[in-house]
């Protein structure tokens, strides 16, 4: 199935448009390319192409409508984030919502151990007693919290906050790691405190499941950055209260199985 989809993407882009499949999820395939969709002379760190394939279990017309709607929604979210002060996110380059394609700039690079610089891989690289609590790890996690806080403070939610959907990239000026949020397929505008609490809970659980030995301190640092980024104390208190309620509901579900 995936081979057929990859062939379809290559046919759509053209034989002179080299792409490499880098991940495949339930909703979309993600490709990497060095080529700009319109100007072959434009190159940078590379580009990401996200493609939502046709779902055979859906009626063709319903599938087309859903694909267009979700692609447009993700593009609008990226445009909004690109104009939002303080948010680090990929830049939207181009889109074809009728066929389910989004082009965006690539963020991230190789870590010293050769792995891609997702937050998940970064923390795994420091997954030992000697490195886990280094100052640079603390600084990165505080920056992650700040990014989420700025997002929520502007009434946007991510919808799928995991350590794989946070990517690190070195600043050209300082050389320090900066945190970028990626994959906004489930993101959108929301004034609901519940949505923000769920965002925080999902990330907390992701950190606990993949980095359990150091998760308590890691989540503490993330929340430190999160709290620092709000400009309304009342808004922050509401979110933190709901986050605790969501956390308690999650614990009860775990106990009941």
TrEMBL record:
<protein>
    <recommendedName>
        <fullName>EKC/KEOPS complex subunit BUD32</fullName>
        <ecNumber>2.7.11.1</ecNumber>
    </recommendedName>
</protein>
<dbReference type="GO" id="GO:0000722">
    <property type="term" value="P:telomere maintenance via recombination"/>
</dbReference>
<keyword id="KW-0963">Cytoplasm</keyword>
<dbReference type="InterPro" id="IPR011009">
    <property type="entry name" value="Kinase-like_dom_sf"/>
</dbReference>
<keyword id="KW-0805">Transcription regulation</keyword>
<keyword id="KW-0418">Kinase</keyword>
<keyword id="KW-0158">Chromosome</keyword>
<dbReference type="InterPro" id="IPR022495">
    <property type="entry name" value="Bud32"/>
</dbReference>
<dbReference type="GO" id="GO:0016887">
    <property type="term" value="F:ATP hydrolysis activity"/>
</dbReference>
<dbReference type="InterPro" id="IPR000719">
    <property type="entry name" value="Prot_kinase_dom"/>
</dbReference>
<dbReference type="GO" id="GO:0005524">
    <property type="term" value="F:ATP binding"/>
</dbReference>
<dbReference type="GO" id="GO:0005829">
    <property type="term" value="C:cytosol"/>
</dbReference>
<dbReference type="GO" id="GO:0004674">
    <property type="term" value="F:protein serine/threonine kinase activity"/>
</dbReference>
<keyword id="KW-0597">Phosphoprotein</keyword>
<dbReference type="InterPro" id="IPR008266">
    <property type="entry name" value="Tyr_kinase_AS"/>
</dbReference>
<keyword id="KW-0547">Nucleotide-binding</keyword>
<keyword id="KW-0804">Transcription</keyword>
<keyword id="KW-0779">Telomere</keyword>
<keyword id="KW-0378">Hydrolase</keyword>
<dbReference type="GO" id="GO:0005634">
    <property type="term" value="C:nucleus"/>
</dbReference>
<dbReference type="GO" id="GO:0008033">
    <property type="term" value="P:tRNA processing"/>
</dbReference>
<comment type="subunit">
    <text>Component of the EKC/KEOPS complex composed of at least BUD32, CGI121, GON7, KAE1 and PCC1; the whole complex dimerizes.</text>
</comment>
<keyword id="KW-0808">Transferase</keyword>
<dbReference type="GO" id="GO:0045944">
    <property type="term" value="P:positive regulation of transcription by RNA polymerase II"/>
</dbReference>
<keyword id="KW-0819">tRNA processing</keyword>
<dbReference type="GO" id="GO:0070525">
    <property type="term" value="P:tRNA threonylcarbamoyladenosine metabolic process"/>
</dbReference>
<comment type="similarity">
    <text>Belongs to the protein kinase superfamily. BUD32 family.</text>
</comment>
<dbReference type="GO" id="GO:0000781">
    <property type="term" value="C:chromosome, telomeric region"/>
</dbReference>
<keyword id="KW-0067">ATP-binding</keyword>
<dbReference type="GO" id="GO:0000408">
    <property type="term" value="C:EKC/KEOPS complex"/>
</dbReference>
<feature type="domain" description="Protein kinase">
    <location>
        <begin position="16"/>
        <end position="257"/>
    </location>
</feature>
<keyword id="KW-0539">Nucleus</keyword>
<dbReference type="Pfam" id="PF06293">
    <property type="entry name" value="Kdo"/>
</dbReference>
<keyword id="KW-0723">Serine/threonine-protein kinase</keyword>
<keyword id="KW-0010">Activator</keyword>
């Amino acid at each position: 199935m995936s081979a057929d989809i990859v062939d379809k993407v290559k046919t759509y882009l053209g034989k002179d448009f080299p792409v490499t499949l880098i991940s495949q999820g339930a909703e979309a395939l993600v490709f990497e390319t060095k080529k700009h969709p319109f100007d072959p002379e434009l190159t940078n760190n590379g580009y990401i192409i996200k493609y939502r394939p046709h779902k055979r279990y859906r009626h063709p017309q319903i599938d087309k409508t859903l694909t267009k709607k979700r692609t447009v929604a993700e593009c609008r979210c990226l445009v909004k984030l690109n104009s939002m002060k303080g948010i680090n996110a990929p830049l939207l380059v181009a889109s074809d919502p009728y066929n389910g394609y989004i082009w965006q700039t690539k963020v991230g690079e190789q870590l010293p151990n050769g792995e891609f610089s997702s937050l998940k891989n970064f923390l795994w690289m420091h997954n030992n007693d000697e490195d886990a609590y280094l100052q640079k790890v603390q600084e990165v996690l505080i920056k992650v919290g700040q990014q989420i806080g700025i997002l929520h403070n502007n009434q946007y939610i991510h919808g799928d906050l995991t350590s794989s959907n946070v990517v690190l990239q070195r600043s050209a000026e300082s050389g320090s790691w900066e945190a970028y949020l990626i994959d906004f397929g489930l993101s959108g505008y929301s004034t609901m405190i519940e949505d923000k609490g769920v965002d925080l809970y999902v990330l907390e659980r992701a950190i606990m499941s993949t980095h359990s030995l150091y998760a308590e301190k890691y989540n503490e640092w993330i929340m430190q950055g999160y709290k620092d980024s709000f400009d309304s104390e009342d808004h922050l208190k509401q979110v933190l209260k709901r986050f605790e309620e969501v956390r308690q509901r999650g614990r009860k579900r775990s106990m009941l199985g």
